[in-house]
Each structure stands twice: as C-alpha cells, then as structure tokens.
Amino acid sequence: MIIENIKLAFNAMRGNKMRTALSLLGIVIGVASVVAILTIGESASQSITDAIAVGGLDMVTIYPSAGQRNTGIFNEEFSTMLKRDVEGVDSVLPQNSSTARVRVGQESTNASIVGVLSDYGDVLSLEYTDGAFFEAMDNINRRQVAVLGADIAETLFPGQAAVGQYISLFRNQAKNYLVVGVLDKKDPTFSLSYNNTVYIPYNTYGQRFIRTTNVGAFVVKIADGYDTIAVSDVITEYLDDIVGTDGYSIFSPASLAEMADQITGTFSSFLALIAAISLLVGGIGIMNIMLVSVAERTREIGVRKALGASPSVIRGQFLIEALTLTILGGILGVLLGSLLSFAVTNLMEWSLHLSYASFILALGFSMFVGVFFGWYPAMKASKLDPIDALNYE
Amino acid sequence: MSEHVITLSDVRRYYVMGEFVVKALDGVTVSINKGEFTSIMGPSGSGKSTMMNLIGCLDTPTSGKILIDGEDTSGMSEAELAFIRNEKVGFVFQQFNLLGKLTALENVITPLLYAGVSVRERRNRAIEALTRVGLGDRMSHRPNELSGGQKQRVAIARALVNNPSILLADEPTGALDTKTGNQIMELFDELNSEGRTVILVTHDRELGLKAKRQIHIRDGKLEA
To answer: What are the pLDDT digits (tens) for B124-168?
Structure first.
C-alpha cells in the first residue's frame, strides 16, 4: 500500500514537473542552507581546533607572575608538589627561557633559548630530522649541548648537517654549544614556536643565563585518560589556594580550543536556526501545492472512495505524497548543501568535516515539515463527501 | 430471507436546502434478490440517484433501514461504509471514472489494494477480470488510449474484481453509441446469467426494459 502510494506520488509529480520543482525549491534551499551552515561551521571550528591542537591538547603551561619570583614557591620542588597533589598530572616540566643571539661563523640570528630537562623531548613527542634530544647526564653535568629548531638550523647551517657542529650563544660572554639534535619542522602555535628555538639543558641554562632557583614556566602534561580541561580546572583551584589568582597565569590549548569551538558552535547554530525558518517557509509551499493537488483530484478521490478507500487510506495517500515531496527535497538539499560546503571549505582551505548530524537533522526536519504541512490537505481530502467528489467537474 | 441481497425498509432521505426540505426519497420499501437483474427507472429528479447512492453505501438514509447482504448499514461510520463498498458493491459509472494516470490493469487492481489482497493475487485477479470483459490484450493501456466501450469494460472489470454481491451500474451506456451500448448491455446480461446481481439505474425506458425486473420511482416514491 505504501509502495503504491509512493508510486502515485511520483506519478503526480511527473504530471506537473514545473510545479513540483518550484514547490520543492523551498525545501531544497532550506535543507541546503541548514546543512551548509552546520557543515561549514563544523569545518571552521575543526580547523581552528586543529591549529590549536598542534601545541598539544594534553598540555597546560603555568607561568608564575613576576611578583612570585622570590616567594620560593615556584622553584623546582613545585614540579614534585603539583604531581603529588593534583590527580591526572603525568609530568611537570620546569623550563626557563629568554632570547639570545646565536652565531655560527658569519651567520647569526636571534633565537629563543629554552632550558629544559632531558625528558622534555619525549614528553612533548618531539621529532628529529637528525640526532636526538640531549641526555640526563648532559643536564646533570651542565654540558653545553643544544637541540635546534628547524628554522635556526636552516639559517645557521644552510644545506649542511648541524649535528656535531658548534653554535655560539651570547649572554654576557659567548659560549660554544655542541649541536646534538635538530627538530622536525613543526607548525607554530600560540604557545610555542619550536622552529625558532634552541633547547639547552635546564641546569646549563641555570648556570649560564639566570643563576636562580626560580622557574620561568612549568609545562604540565596531563595523564592519558584524563580530561585536560577538567585537570587544568583543578590545577587552577590548587594554585588559587597557594598563590592567589594574581600569582600565576595558566595557558591550555584545550581550553582555547573549547572556547573557539563554543563560539563557532553558537554562531553556526544561530545561523542554522535562521535557515530552519526558510525550511518552514518551504513547508508552507508544500501545503499550498498539496491543497492544489487535492482540489484538482477531487474526482479521483471520489472514485477511490467509491472503490472502497476509507478516509484514513485517502489521508495516508496524500500524507505520503507530501512526505515523498519533502524527503525528495531533503535529499536534494543535503546534496546541494554538501556541494556548497565543499566549495566554501575548499576556498577557505579548511578540511571538510561533513556534519552527518546536520544531514539527519535536516532530513528529519523536512519530514516533519511534510507531515505537519501535509496533514491539513490530507485531512481535507479524506473528509470529502464521496457523492460530491464523484460529481465534481 | 437470505436470498435478499438488498432490503430497503421505509427508507427516507431528506436534504435541507436553506428553508426547504427536499424529500429525495420518501419511504421506500423494496427487496432485491440474489441473482436478479433489476433496473431502477425514473425521470431525472425522481430520486433514483439517491436510491443508488444509498444502495451503494455512498450515503446513509435520514431514517429507515438498509440491509446489504444482511448487514445493516444505517449508523455505520465512514470507514465501515468504505469497507462495505469495497467488499459488496461494484460501481459502474456513466463517465467510466477511470483513474487517468493508471493503466487498465492498475485501475482494476485499485479495489484489491483497499481490500488488502497480496501483490501476486491482486495481479492475477485483475488479469482474470480484464480477460473476462475481453480486454486481455489492453492491460497496459491508459484510459486515454482506449475507446469508450473499452473504458467501460475496464470499469466493469474493476467493479467485478473484488467479487461483489451487487453490480451497481449508473447509466452505463449513457456516454456510448448505440452499438457499443448494446454490447455493454449484453455483457451485463452475461454476468447476470453467471449468477451476479445486477442493478441498472437509468432514465432510458427502452434500456430499463432489458432488465428482468423494473422498479419505477417518481418523486421519491416507488410506483406500482
């Protein structure tokens, strides 16, 4: 029965191609804009998140405020303390940094010099084009060794291997450092610009650059299976208790990503809501066409009733016709919307993240529109008096 | 009693037209037996259409009782009436009333659709009915590809296909030329001789006399 009704619906559409196409247009445009807006929104938010995620979504960086320099809290012991007191902290890496002139022969450049422990490379999953990160013994013995970011290596040693060669770092006096590793090129992020950094052992840095036990920053790696934002919230509470809200600042790519996600999410939901209104308008178009269809086919309805079609059967026939129309419009709309999203994300050089939820949402909504706006015409058809309908000219 | 396929007892059908009450049918009592070939005759406005609509369960009486195959239709809901029409009544109209977008076969299948017959069986039964009226070779034609006589044969096949208790024909030859009309009447004769109850509604005296029994109606009442 349903199959026959769908066939009848297609028969009716074929009989009035132009009219069908025009009334479908409303649904098609409505569904297409919902799909396109949600998909483009999702793709935009994904590409922002991806950019932020390069910095490590499981990383949180704590920066002590200038006023905390001499309170004795943010020294090396802090790492052990934080790891002990906050659940979900995998490791806490102290780091100090500053900018210095780096020279090799005639070539020189400014670089950010970062003093870190030897496990820094592993914790941040750094990758190397040559060599490796320095060893624990290099730190303990305050050896003058360095790991170079890709750009620094390229500038100082154009076209040649840097590992095994010396660079000279200038701070008060020039000191030579043996290059032990060169990092892979990595996209710069808000937090760290790996490519323009020279990593040296933490203790070496302490001796050569600052001579204090205070730490410039702590990179916190969140343990597997813990939610970065949740743990960073706990860290925030913990630090508020110790040093107060002004005593530090905390940076987490994950919370930034979440914020970006929320903003684009809110924005695209709002736009999709507006697009949904056009779907509603499309629904009114469907109601119009169905009313015309019922009026035109009054005699057919009379004949069908004479042949034994009950009111509910007639209602079903016209409801299915309206549903077939809107589902067809929905499918065309999803295709058009996807095509549009593809074009826009291509243009913006975002990766395309088809929002399957929006497909289901848009199709579901157009079906709802079909039933909602098809109901009245279908009821009208089912209530026709068979004798009047049969005599209708 | 069980021989009566239709029983009307004191059936009245009044229409309210503004301030007037039109007594389209005013106290009709009549029975039609199973296997009879009856014509209901009367001039236009006599009430014969009203009577046909009531027998065909397209309408319900203002008062009185109508039994179709022993079932009392007064007070039935729309859906119940539809069921009776589907199961017990086969309509043949003056203007054929075929569904224009469907083929002859699909037209004949339509009542079986509403009866809930399986796909295979309704196809077989529709083919059988079309073959019976001599249109076995026209099954995939649409109404606009058929002559008037052929259209009426499709309509008769459609009326027959659900094996109804009554064949109810309303001026079935009214839109046909004399020769074709005679052929259609012969078909009704044949169907009647196979045991089917045929009711012919007409204003044409000559045509009505071809039935074995005549019911004359005028001003909403039966004439002796």
So the answer is: 999 999 999 999 999 999 999 999 999 999 999 999 999 999 999
Is residue A249, in this structure, part of any structural domain at all?
no
In a domain, A163, yes or no: yes
CB–CB contact B59 A387 (8 Å) = yes
Inside any domain, residue A267: yes
Is residue B86 less than 8 Å (CB to CB) from chain A? yes
Per residue in A217-237, is it b (16+ CB within 10 Å) or e — as a string? bbbbbbeeebebeebbeebbe
User: How high is the pLDDT of residue A195?
Assistant: 84
Left, alpha or beta for B217 (phi > 0: left; psi -120 to 50: alpha)? beta
Comparing alpha-carbon positions, the chain B residue that sits nearest to A312 is: B79
Of A1, A12, A308, the CB nearest to B111: A308
Give the model confidence (pLDDT) of A108-137 as tens digits: 888 889 999 998 888 888 889 899 999 999
| Interface with chain A: mutation pick from B88, B92, B103, B110, highest number of A CBs within 10 Å | B110
Give the distance between the most distant pair of CA atoms in chain B. Answer: 55
- Rounded to the nearest angstrom, the minimum Cα separation between B175 and chain A is 15
Q: B36 near B197, Cβ under 8 Å?
A: yes
Chain B residues closer than 8 Å to A313 by CB = 82, 114
Q: Is the entire prediction scored with pTM above 0.90?
A: no
Q: How far is B86 from chain A (nearest CA, A)?
A: 4
Q: Determine the Cα–Cα distance for residues A283 and A155; give it in Å rounded to an integer.
A: 63
Q: How confident is the model at residue B1 (pLDDT cuts 50, 70, 90)?
A: very low
Which homologous superfamily is B4-223 in? P-loop containing nucleotide triphosphate hydrolases (3.40.50.300)
Q: Write down the ipTM of this complex.
A: 0.94
Structural domain that includes position A336: 2-52+258-390
